[in-house]
Amino acid sequence: LQGLGLGAEDYIVKPFEVLELLARVEIVLRRGGKSARTFTLDELRVDLDAHRVFLREEEVPLTPQEYSLLEVLITNRNLALSREKLLNLAWGYDYEGESRTVDAHIQRLRKKLELENRIQTVYKLGYRLSTR
Q1: Is residue 106 part of a domain?
Q2: Interval 6-26: pLDDT, tens
Q3: What pTM does this model have?
Q4: The dihedral of CA 123, 125, 66, 132: what is its sign?
Q5: Domain limits at 27?
Q6: Can you tell me the distance from the alpha carbon of 28 to that of 40, in angstroms, rounded to the nearest whole number?
């Protein structure tokens, strides 16, 4: 209460999910009208508002599911995510298919966007988009 009284706009109670933190930061940025909704990595640029992906300034067509998976990887960059978590976030709660579909989509993203060294396989877990 004291923090809110001193001008804080929001708070999060521990323990919290990283996704919740990112969502709350995004809301605050939108309020200020300064939402930087572009992600750049090497020669890749993703316009998150327009859902457009560019490699060396040439647009790369992605399927809606490939784009959704890419956006999840970007939002959680440098974090290892299990196949199940990726399915949950990119496909939705009601997806009942095989978790290996994630592998096929990851392979296509690596090839289309030349991210072979950036989308890393985390042994016995899943994948991570490395920006380091």
Answers
A1: yes
A2: 777 777 888 888 888 888 887
A3: 0.71
A4: negative
A5: 2-32
A6: 21
